[in-house]
Amino acid sequence: MLHRFTPFAVAIVMAIALPAHAQAEKEEKGTMERFGAAVDEKYEKTKEFFSDTAINARIKRRLLEDDQVSVKNISLTVDQGAVTVEGDAPSEEMAQRTLEIVRATEGVTGVTNKLQIIVREPSQAK
């Protein structure tokens, strides 16, 4: 008599266990998909950071190599290729040259000019 109920008991256990197992697999798959999406997002942000850092370095190198530009009072902020140029320029010509160099740099998608023209007296210039 025990043997007659064994297949029935196995069938009941399987009927209960299989949907639970399938649900666990779905939850695991959802967790893995969310984890994968988070990794992808972090990768993209890291890639953007290093890309922005590389753009910043290229701009600074080009500005330093140009004898018409002084980078002493200029700062750059790069966000996804968009560059904000801030600081003081001793002349309109130097400000325009700085912006030309920034715009012509590989990876730059846009430029915001926040440069101020500050003409210093000869005794103030150092």
Q: In which range does the helix fraction lie?
A: 55-70%
The main sheet comes to: 3 strands, mixed
Approximately what portion of the residues adopt beta-strand conformation?
A: 15-25%
Question: How many domains comprise the coordinates?
Answer: 1
Shape: rod-shaped
Structural class from helices and strands?
alpha+beta
Q: Uncertain runs with pLDDT below 50, 5 residues or more?
A: none
Characterization of this structure:
With 126 residues, the protein is an alpha+beta fold. It has one domain (2-117): 2-Layer Sandwich (Histidine-containing Protein, Chain: A). The chain has two helices and three strands. It has a three-stranded mixed sheet. Helix 2 links the parallel strand 2 and strand 3. The chain is rod-shaped and about 105 Å long. It starts with a helix and ends in a 9-residue tail after the last strand. The model has no long low-confidence stretch (mean pLDDT 82).
Secondary structure layout:
Layout: H1 2-65, E1 74-79, E2 82-89, H2 92-103, E3 110-117
Parallel strand pairs: 2-3
Antiparallel strand pairs: 1-2
